[in-house]
Each structure stands twice: as structure tokens, then as C-alpha cells.
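From the pipeline queue, job 12 of 40. The input is one protein chain; the requested action is below.

Action: predict structure.
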Amino acid sequence: MTVAEALRHRRSYSSVGSTAPTTRQLLPLIEAAGSVADHGSLHPWRIIALRGSARDTVGRAMADAAGLEGSSAEKLAAKLRRAPLVLAVVVSPKASHKVPDWEQEAVASGVAHALSLVLDEAGWGVMWRTGLQTRAKAVHKVHKLGPHERLLGWLYVGAKPPSKSGRRTTISAKDYLSAL
């Protein structure tokens, strides 16, 4: 399959099965994703793997950040149990007079997208989730982020369901291309 075909056929899986890649399986995929364009080769990103009870800890921090209590808090906290592996994508900017912060965040976003593609190619279902809690202090604390780091979101990873119904709508490129 070509890269263009992989991009056209990629799907987000809001529901995944109970198996996930092991750390050993994950490492070469992260290495591949880490080859995105990166001005200055700063590698201004990192990935945090959340498995087992770590998902509950993060889920509770998200509920706290949202100011929820009781069943509403439990419902939000349980969302991280939707997948056996949740990968937190972190922007970890490096000091640089040549590469602005926004460009470093773009690199981290590129890594997240590339990682979702290589996970898909390896047979795993993936969904990139974000939300207001990515900027909450309680959520940063539970992820043990440094003072200059930012959480971009989470890749929920697990076994692909047996079938994914529906066709992905392709864009009309002429609607997005212009010239000066």
C-alpha cells in the first residue's frame, strides 16, 4: 500500500478491542513516527504509555479538572478504559532561537498523526482524542509534565473491530488549493 492509499483508508476507531501492542511492538512504531519533518532535529515531543490503573489515575484527574463529582465524575474517568492502551502525546519544547514554539508543537502533532498511521498499518485501531482537560493543571500533574510541556491529547489504541462500516468521504482538493 502506498502512503497516499494509507492516508485515504485510515479510519478512527471509537471502539477497540481488549488487546494492544506491547512496549516491544510499540517502540519501532514510535521510531518510525519520530521521522517527521523536524527543523533542527529537536525532537520536541514525547509519548507516555498509559495501561492498567494508570488510565484510572488520569481519568480521575480529568474528572477533577472538569469539576465533576459522583456518577458524572465516574463516567468521565471511565472514558480512558475505552482502550487497553492510551498514549499521551506531549509537546516538550526545546530552547531554540531558530525554531519557534508553534513549529515545535507542529512537529509533535505530526508525530501523533504519523503514529496513528503506523499503528493502523500494524493492524491496531486508533482514535486521537483531545479536550479541554489537556490544559488542566491536575491533568498535567498526573502526567508528570515539565513546566514548559503541554499535552496535545491521547491516542486510544486497541484491537481493530472486525469491520468498520461506512466509507470515508474524500475531500475535493481543488477546494483547498490556491495559488498567488
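Job complete. The mean pLDDT is 92.
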